[in-house]
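Q: Joint fold for the lines below.
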Amino acid sequence: MIYFNSGDELLLVLEALSNQQRLKIIAVLSEGKQYVSQLARELGISRPLLYLHLQKLEEAKLVSSDMEILESGKAAKYYMLNPVQFEINEQMIHALAPSLTMKKKN
Amino acid sequence: MIYFNSGDELLLVLEALSNQQRLKIIAVLSEGKQYVSQLARELGISRPLLYLHLQKLEEAKLVSSDMEILESGKAAKYYMLNPVQFEINEQMIHALAPSLTMKKKN
DNA sequence: ATCATATGTAATGATTTTATTACAGGTAAT
DNA sequence: ATTACCTGTAATAAAATCATTACATATGAT
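A: Joint structure:
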């Protein structure tokens, strides 16, 4: 279960989830870990773009990664889904809103 | 409680929630209905921008509006929060991902 | 050596989102 | 009729996000 300690943390997760591609990535990874190139093929998107999406998911701590060796002997970067489960309601938004820092993003 | 009938519906809500200003709007409206001009003053943002945010929240069915007459006699557009409560987990994302239509937005 | 398949990232471009300024129109009170 | 509010939107600008192309590097197999 995911708990949010600040508005910024909540927002980070919501932003990570508010994209079709990233939702699809989560859907695929929910079936098991996968490495980047294979994942890009399955989703039909370019690898650089996939990196970008994975980075956002990783920043929100929704996925993790590690390097593994394929049967072929080549190194591959595997991504796996962290447990994703949380509730949203107006009380929590009200409670966390004050800790939203009005950032301008880099 | 909010239920999602498709990936697109889920995404619409997530997109509506993935913005600081809109989270703050929800926080303010959770304390009670408010009219646009007053809300803009409270949030310290321009009215045209607020309209844009409110429109997104309304499309996601998170808020509703109606015209009312102020004590002063002037017409005001009041916005109020609809019940916001739902759960997110990987099973539902997996189930709804196939019904994500890869849109290019207008 | 060449091919096939991996990772990783720089540079660039296209599109969307966010935000401001500037209008036009309405009602009520002084 | 001027002031002080309100709604509503067009036009534009600024910033962030999304997406592609191109390249460098590495490993194993033929």
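Q: Anything notable?
A: The longest strand of chain B covers residues 63-69. The radius of gyration of chain B is 16 Å.
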